[in-house]
Amino acid sequence: MVGDAIRVIGASRTDAGVHALGQVCSLVTTSTLSASSVRTALNALLPADIRVLSATDVERPFDARRSARGKRYGYVIDDAEIAMPLMLRYAWHVGAPLDVGAMRVALRRLRGRHDFSAFCAAPGRARDPRCTLRAVHVVRKKRLVALFLSADSFLHHMVRNIVGSAVEVGLGRREPGWMARVLEQRDRALAGPTVPAHGLVLLRVMYPRDLLGRH
């Protein structure tokens, strides 16, 4: 479209089946097209399930991945007895009521900077396992339970493994203090299962104000 051989850099890799509402990409081009024209043209060319919501010119050395200071994910669970057909693509159907209060207590112990090896899949263990979990919330809206996690970085399958462990608590299979002990022992085999990818969504990538004009 722009006439250059360009490299598009994505802010975050996601597992197959994971959704994104706030993915960010960056590229360098010599084209004189305005950012708004690029957005319009891309939306005319891309498949219907990918939309460019905004485009802006940024100063170098902005890089969608390296300049990011954090990410926010959400995970949606349907805990009603019978699955809601319209949510099957976006929510994991558990089919049994979750104790949201117990899940909140369990997840509260994970806030802060920790070694999250216990919640990291084997392919991601080559990197530094320390992350700062800035916020974690559990919200119920009728039959849907949503977990929101914000951190400076995430390990491979980290969110899906944390959610899997929280659901074990929510179903009464584990008591809330169990998650803190799993975190301390840094052993993936002790944590809960990896939940399905389709309930997970990348909500937002956060940047310093002076780089992108917003968090």
List key phrases describing it.
215 residues, alpha+beta, Alpha-Beta Plaits, seven-stranded mixed sheet, two-stranded antiparallel sheet, 5 helices, 9 strands
Using only C-alpha atoms, the radius of gyration works out to 19 Å
**H/E element string?**
EEEHEEHEEEHHEH
Please state the second-level CATH architecture of the domain at 70-204. 2-Layer Sandwich
The percent range for strand residues is 15-25%
Assembly classification:
single chain
- What is the CATH class name of the domain at 70-204? Alpha Beta
The percent range for helix content is 10-25%
Describe this structure in words.
The protein is built from five helices and nine strands. The chain is of the alpha+beta class and 215 residues long. It has a domain of 135 residues: Pseudouridine synthase I, catalytic domain, C-terminal subdomain (Alpha-Beta Plaits). Strands 2, 4, 5, 6, 7, 8 and 9 form a seven-stranded mixed sheet that branches. Helix 2 packs across helix 3.
